[in-house]
Amino acid sequence: MDAFNTWLRERMSSRGNLNHMFNTSKFGSNHVETLNGWQSFCNNTTVWQRFKQGDYYAIECGNPHICRLARQAADERNARMDGDEKFGEYTDALAELMRYNDEKDRREEEMDKLRDEADKNAEAARKEAAQKGLATKKRNKERRDEQQRLTEHICAELEGLKGQDEQKNELLAGLQKDVLRVHVLGLDVRALNVVEEDNTQIEMRKMKEFKKQKLVKSILNRLEDLLGDGEKNKASFQELRRDILQATDLELETTEDGGEQDE
User: Fold this and answer.
1) Could you state, in order of their start, the residue ranges of all structural domains in the chain?
2) pLDDT at 85 (0 to 100)
3) pLDDT tens digit string along 41-73?
4) In whole angstroms, what is the distance from residue 212 CA to residue 183 CA?
5) What's the domain of life for this entry (predicted)?
6) Residue 255: pLDDT above 50?
7) Coil, strand, or helix at residue 193?
């Protein structure tokens, strides 16, 4: 009993009940009622019961209301078997109550530590993912800006090739429009890449990609025919060809979840 008194006082003290007066000699009319009475100082979810052989065991109820009813039923049921309680059972029962609650506290502390560690790891992972996402977002913005710059540069170069030949000017204007169309198609393809695809979206993306590549080839073929075989024209064509291919082939990165970070 001294061990139980010490254990109970320490438990009560840890819960702020320093001045609580209690008598450990007898709490209820039978051992089960006594155990459930002392258990109420520990929690409102554990119910104590007794085997006919004299062993005591605890069960957990998730709901305090159900626990209260279960304790009441166990107390009443065991009251009818009061004569079966053997000498020395009470001391053994209190020892089991201490062992059970100490073990329960230990498991809960371990679970709290595991939860805290898991929360810290999850928070660290979220921060790392956010940092990677920001870095990807920055790189993709730089690439989009580069695509925009190249597209504008190509259109300006084509504008610079215009002269007195109206027919040639019209052809160059058509090339400028198609370069812009390629840029828009590229944006459409990337937009379809960042969403969860179904069969329709996959086919649409493939169709737009095919149109883009076909249009790029058409632009390059028409541009080569338009500029002719002169050395200066060949140099202009090669420069424009390089810029067009670079502008249309730049790919944006995806984040870890498979999506592209947009502004």
Assistant:
1) 2-86, 138-249
2) 55
3) 888 999 998 887 778 899 998 889 999 999 999
4) 8
5) Eukaryota
6) no
7) helix
Task: Let me know how long the chain is.
Answer: 263
Whole-number Å distance between alpha carbons of 242 and 211: 19
Pairing mode, if any, of strands 56-60 and 46-50?
A: antiparallel
Residue 11 in tokens: 């438990």
Q: Are 98 and 3 in contact (CB under 8 A)?
A: yes
Do residues 42 and 94 touch, judged by C-beta distance below 8 A?
no
How far, in Å, are 5, 22, 197, 241 from residue 19 at the CA level? Answer: 14, 10, 67, 89
Instruction: Please say whether the beta carbons of 150 and 249 come within 8 A.
Output: no
The H or E element containing residue 223 is helix 199-227
What is the spatial distance between Cα 29 and Cα 26, in angstroms, rounded to a whole number?
8
> Does residue 202 sit in helix, strand or coil?
helix
User: How far, rounded to the nearest angstrom, does the alpha carbon of residue 13 sit from its chain's CA centroid?
Assistant: 41
